[in-house]
């Protein structure tokens, strides 16, 4: 019998250290093993079958089978996912995992399923930190006048502005040139991505603000999943569980290793002072989210941190 | 070959031969593939909109519009006047004027046909009046248009930067030397023509004439300084530079020179947007086409086949150049870049070609294609201005095309030409 | 009857052209403010890029449709030129019918696409996504209309703007 083939796309490279690629490859390996070859996964990295937004839509509409996408983009389809992007929300990695694998993650998945996409699991990209060419940032006041490239996302725009910086929403394609030529002063990224994206070649200071956490969703189309025989559905779910464990295990060692390598390459790395000062400064971002009706979800996330 | 692969290759070729515009031929193939595979029809609108949601591509309408306003406001005539007082007394004087003016115009405009139109409209009649043959004057202005995509800013580099995900500012720099080299080649051909044809030389301009021309042209001459200075001093991105160029041209034409009536502006915008739409239609519909090509895994198949048959980097570059050049003889250059781009980039990566050098080579090839017969935008613009038939211009332009191919050879095999300014 | 239909198409074409011009000026203004606010006041606006891109998609797709009426879309006509007159007329009709078909397909699929996006919002401004996707519906409908017009008037699929015929 012909094996069932799933086409799995993601927007970034298929590099050895790319967090999305690690997850995608882990899922392929797990599913082909689980099903004894009855199910195959074809990999499409590098935006070959669409960028984040097209992939989320594609999975919902059935033009794409499965995808790994950034949480911030998923939030454009289901705004509740935006709660995970709130600044200084998580205490540590363990807190993040309690949220993603607990009732909050399940609640978010249920909401997205109603929009035609099933969350098979949450991959991790690590905490995001601030990189800039002006000065090391240890307290909010150091952000004064620093022009920081952010994703096209209101939470990140508000976050940088609330800390006293100037948020510049900019497409990634222009960012490296803009920072090289001084159009902007810095940007923010998960630490593990700084070296693969060669940002360290143009930026001096890395301040470990750990302001937000980047999660990725492994998605599959609901219509597609429902059409599969029960046995295959079970294989898919089990493979996703295995892939999530494998991806997180691979990522766990990456941030410390990346930090060491960045310091060796001459980047000045510093820790921030009391995180409470930062939390206080971004209070308006939380007020806005609560006003948008996300209070219950925020409280659930915070409760999981205690 | 699968049904979808057949639609994407043979189906597309048949539709293009039948005379279906490239953009709609792409769309028809996507619809055909949707029908065969049972995919959701929403793939077509989804990819079309996604293709237009690129901030870098926003540079296209504004670089076009800046050129339109410069022409409509009479600024290109002032530019020609400045060039005229400096070089008209040299052998082949008016020919040199056209090259010099085109070189400066190229540093404002990113579009080859717009440059041919702006310079040709002034220079072809002027040269004909001074005893040059119309065909030669047209061939020269058509060739001069080729400088525009090479000298920054450049729409072709913007499109390639989006496809290849390379820095547009770096790609711009990689075109400077190839562009200057081409200008030098044109100067050589003009001098050679002057010795053979013996057109009378013009008198040297007086100091007063020079001062007058400079005073009238100073605002035009400032435009490239502002646009390129702004990009490389980090004041704005290449896309924003297009907007600044536009605002500056508007400001000069409306307020300083008072040479553009607000009513003319509507026409300029419509013309600029029509050209943009022609490009964007191809870019937009090719997105869905590209997704299908990726899903069919046609690119790995082709690169694998090439790798099995061609073993050295230099042979591969030669093959790509010849293939691209022949294709550009019958097909729209933008369509080739957009449809084959991802595949070409995969091949270049496999052979370890520097991506900026590769981009420079492709855009040099594209630029030549705009002037080389039988199909090329600059060629058509030149024919329209001079009211000449294709074969008349085609014969006169042959030496220029040969020179440009020689430059392409240098750009391909001496990476230093494209990478000198790129760190 | 025929002239009433003609007047309607003419009015739609004029409205399309004006929309393209107005949206271009809007993009110009938004990006001018963006450059000014960032470089002079160090306070880059967060809405300008997304607004300009929304206007760009609309402008490009409207101009794409308008271009069908003006015959701007590039194609290869070497084979057509070689055909005898009657055959060429037939081929042109076939091409125009195909273009009109794509227009209809785009309008209908675009309608479903727009409907399915209800409730989703853009990243920075938070405008409803159907506002962007509706550009496909408008584009498809106008492409179909303008192609049908050329078909009825017996014009070729490219070149010769309607005014010159
Ligand atoms: Na140029
Ligand atoms: Na050509």
TrEMBL record, chain B:
- Taxonomic lineage: Bacteria, Pseudomonadati, Pseudomonadota, Betaproteobacteria, Burkholderiales
User: Can you name this protein?
Assistant: TRAP transporter large permease protein
Q: Which Pfam families match?
A: DctM (PF06808)
Q: Which GO terms describe its cellular component?
A: plasma membrane
Which keywords annotate this record?
A: Cell inner membrane, Cell membrane, Membrane, Transmembrane, Transmembrane helix, Transport
Claim: Plastid is one of the keywords in the record: no
Q: Where is the TRAP C4-dicarboxylate transport system permease DctM subunit domain?
A: 11-417
Task: Report the subcellular localization.
Answer: Cell inner membrane
From TrEMBL, chain C:
Membrane-spanning intervals of the chain: 20-39, 51-68, 94-113, 125-147
Example GO biological process term?
C4-dicarboxylate transport
- Keywords, alphabetical: Cell inner membrane, Cell membrane, Membrane, Transmembrane, Transmembrane helix, Transport
Question: Topologically, how does it sit relative to the membrane?
Answer: Multi-pass membrane protein
The name on file for this protein is: TRAP transporter small permease protein
Q: Does the keyword Membrane apply?
A: yes
Domain Tripartite ATP-independent periplasmic transporters DctQ component, by residue range, is 27-154
Free-text function comment from the UniProt entry: Part of the tripartite ATP-independent periplasmic (TRAP) transport system.
**Record's Gene Ontology CC terms?**
plasma membrane
What span is annotated as the signal peptide, if there is one? Answer: none
Taxonomically, the superkingdom here is Bacteria
Pfam short name (any one): DctQ
User: Where does this protein come from, organism-wise?
Assistant: Pseudorhodoferax soli
Quote the subunit structure annotation: The complex comprises the extracytoplasmic solute receptor protein and the two transmembrane proteins.
């Amino acid at each position: 019998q012909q094996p069932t083939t799933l086409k799995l796309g993601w927007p970034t490279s298929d590099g050895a250290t790319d967090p999305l690629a690690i997850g995608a490859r882990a899922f392929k390996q797990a599913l082909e093993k689980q099903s004894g070859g009855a199910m195959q996964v074809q990999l499409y990295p590098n935006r070959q079958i669409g960028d984040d937004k097209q992939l989320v839509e594609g999975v919902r509409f059935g033009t794409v089978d499965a995808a790994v996408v950034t949480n911030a983009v998923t939030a454009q389809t289901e705004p509740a996912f935006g709660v995970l992007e709130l600044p200084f929300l998580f205490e540590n990695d363990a807190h993040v995992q309690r949220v993603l694998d607990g009732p909050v993650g399940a609640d978010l998945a249920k909401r997205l399923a109603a929009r035609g996409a099933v969350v098979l699991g949450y991959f991790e990209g690590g905490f995001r930190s601030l990189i800039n060419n002006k000065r090391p940032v240890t307290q909010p006041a150091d952000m004064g006048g620093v022009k920081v490239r952010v994703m096209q996302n209101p939470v990140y725009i508000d976050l940088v502005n609330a800390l006293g910086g100037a948020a510049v929403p900019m497409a990634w394609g222009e960012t490296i040139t803009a920072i090289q030529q001084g159009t902007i002063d810095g940007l923010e990224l998960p630490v593990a991505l700084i070296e693969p994206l060669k940002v360290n070649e143009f930026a001096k200071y890395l301040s470990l603000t750990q302001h937000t956490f980047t999660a990725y969703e492994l998605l599959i189309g609901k219509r597609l999943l429902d059409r599969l025989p029960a046995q295959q559905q079970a294989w898919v779910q089990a493979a996703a569980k295995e892939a999530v464990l494998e991806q997180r295990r691979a990522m766990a060692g990456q941030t410390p290793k990346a930090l060491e390598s960045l310091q060796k390459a001459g980047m000045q790395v510093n820790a921030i002072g009391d995180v409470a000062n930062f939390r206080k400064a971004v209070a308006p971002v939380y007020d806005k989210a609560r006003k948008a009706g996300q209070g219950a979800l925020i409280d659930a996330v915070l409760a999981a941190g205690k | 070959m699968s049904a979808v692969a057949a639609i994407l290759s043979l189906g597309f070729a048949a539709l293009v031969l039948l005379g279906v515009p490239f953009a709609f031929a792409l769309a028809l193939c996507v619809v055909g593939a949707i029908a065969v595979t049972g995919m959701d029809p929403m793939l077509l609108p989804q990819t079309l909109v996604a293709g237009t949601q690129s901030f870098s591509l926003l540079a296209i309408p504004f670089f076009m519009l800046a050129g339109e306003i410069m022409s409509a406001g009479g600024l290109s005539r002032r530019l020609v006047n400045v060039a005229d007082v400096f070089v008209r007394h040299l052998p082949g004087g008016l020919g040199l004027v056209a090259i010099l003016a085109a070189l400066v115009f190229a540093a404002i405009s990113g579009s080859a046909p717009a440059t041919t139109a702006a310079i040709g409209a002034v220079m072809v009649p002027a040269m004909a009046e001074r005893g040059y043959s119309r065909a030669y004057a047209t061939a020269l202005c058509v060739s001069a248009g080729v400088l525009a995509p090479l000298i920054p800013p450049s729409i072709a580099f913007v499109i390639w930067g989006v496809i290849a995900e390379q820095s547009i500012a770096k790609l711009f720099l990689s075109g400077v030397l190839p562009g200057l080299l081409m200008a030098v080649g044109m100067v050589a051909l003009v001098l050679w023509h002057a010795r053979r044809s013996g057109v009378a030389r013009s008198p040297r301009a007086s100091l007063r004439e020079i001062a007058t021309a400079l005073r009238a042209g100073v605002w035009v001459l400032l435009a490239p300084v502002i646009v390129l200075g702004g990009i490389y001093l980090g004041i704005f991105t290449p896309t924003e530079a297009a907007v600044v160029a536009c605002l500056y041209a508007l400001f000069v034409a409306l307020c300083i020179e008072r040479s553009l009536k607000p009513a003319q502006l509507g026409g300029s915008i419509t013309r600029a947007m029509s050209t943009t739409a022609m490009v964007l239609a191809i870019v937009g519909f090719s997105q869905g086409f590209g997704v299908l090509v990726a899903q069919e895994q046609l690119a790995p198949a082709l690169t694998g086949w090439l790798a099995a048959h061609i073993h050295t980097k230099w042979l591969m570059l030669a093959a790509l150049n010849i293939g691209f050049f022949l294709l550009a003889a019958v097909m729209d250059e933008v369509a080739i870049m957009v449809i084959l781009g991802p595949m070409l980039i995969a091949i270049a990566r496999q052979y370890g070609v520097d991506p900026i050098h590769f981009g420079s080579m492709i855009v040099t090839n594209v630029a030549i294609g705009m002037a080389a017969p039988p199909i090329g935008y600059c060629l058509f613009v030149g024919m329209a201005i001079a009211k000449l038939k294709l074969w008349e211009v085609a014969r006169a332009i042959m030496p220029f095309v040969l020179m440009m191919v020689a430059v392409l050879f240098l750009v391909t095999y001496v990476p230093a030409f494209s990478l000198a300014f790129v760190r | 009857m025929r002239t009433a239909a003609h007047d309607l198409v003419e009015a739609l074409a004029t409205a399309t052209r004006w929309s393209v011009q107005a949206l271009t000026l809007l993009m110009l203004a938004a990006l001018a403010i963006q450059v000014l606010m960032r470089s002079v006041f160090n306070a880059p606006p967060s809405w300008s890029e997304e607004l300009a891109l929304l206007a760009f998609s609309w402008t490009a797709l409207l101009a794409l449709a308008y271009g069908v009426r003006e015959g701007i879309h590039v194609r290869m006509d070497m084979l057509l030129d070689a055909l005898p007159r009657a055959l060429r007329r037939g081929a042109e009709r076939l091409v125009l019918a195909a273009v009109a078909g794509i227009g209809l397909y785009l309008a209908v699929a675009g309608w479903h696409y727009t409907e399915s996006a209800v409730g989703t919002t853009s990243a920075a401004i938070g405008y409803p996504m159907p506002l962007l996707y509706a550009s496909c519906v408008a584009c498809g409908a106008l492409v179909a209309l303008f192609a049908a017009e050329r078909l009825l008037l017996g014009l070729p699929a490219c070149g010769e703007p309607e005014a010159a015929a």
